[in-house]
Amino acid sequence: MELTFFEIIVLIATGLLAGSINTIAGGGSNLSLPVLMLLGLPADIANGTNRVAVMLQCIVGLRGYDKHGALHREAIFPILIPTCLGGVVGALLSVAIPNFYLKPLLLLLILLMAVAVLFRPDIMAPDLDSIPKNPSKTPKAWVGLFVAGTYGGFVQAGVGFILLGALTAGLNYDLIRANALKTLCALAFTSIALCVFIASEIVSWAPGLILGIGSMLGAHFTVGKAVKTKPSTMRWALFVITSFAVAAGLLF
Fold it and tell me: Considering the entire predicted model, what is its pTM?
């Protein structure tokens, strides 16, 4: 795919916004997926291409959260099991569904996730004194993580909100540690999905890598501020970012 200078700038700027939004909340793909489709990529290739940027952004974001001690290492393995299983299922479903049906389905999922976030912002505001639960001993949270992995493997847009819901409301994590684990989960199932999409030859590398440059920059600059933000401020930031992501996604 040949890109003009203007299209390159648009991709980097979109990646910068999407990477920042995904690092502190979710919904960045509400911007990047429509932009990739507006640049002429079919829905299935846009979906596969977007994963390149998301994977790069997650690597940078996860490294930043771990550097600041926000990653709960003991929970990594039990949390990754259901999300990775779901990621495999979701990616295979995405490849199996014909492109004719995928584009309206992607847009419908983005819209439904946007509405859910607007009407249920309280789901990501757990008690600050609560003790995190073990996913292996919390069936509802396990199922929630599997659903998040399946959704994330199928389409990235809005999966951060599902993960945050499972990690905060389901496992009682505060927003900072939930964001760190959310980034880990997203990296895991995105890597799985990307392998499936590469094998299916539905990844356009040039726009994906350019979008990834902006996404990595957004994640790098955002994660340092996120770990130093007060929980109350973080909730307001989450609400503002969510509203912006929803508005921009619906506009596109």
Answer: 0.77
- The residue behind tokens 């771990």 is 66
Is 50 within 8 Å of 160 (Cβ atoms)?
no
CB 75 within 8 A of CB 181: yes
Is the four-CA dihedral 164, 166, 167, 171 of positive or negative sign? positive
pLDDT digits (tens, 9 = 90+) for 34-71: 889 888 898 888 888 998 999 999 999 989 888 888 78
Do the beta carbons of residue 90 and residue 193 sit within 8 Å? Answer: yes
Q: Which parts of 138-204 fold into alpha helices (H)?
A: 139-154, 159-165, 175-199
Maximum pairwise Cα distance, the chain? 53
Handedness of CA 144, 149, 154, 159 (dihedral sign): positive
Half-sphere exposure of 37 (CA within 13 A, CB side): 18
HSE on the CB side for 79, CA within 13 Å? 29
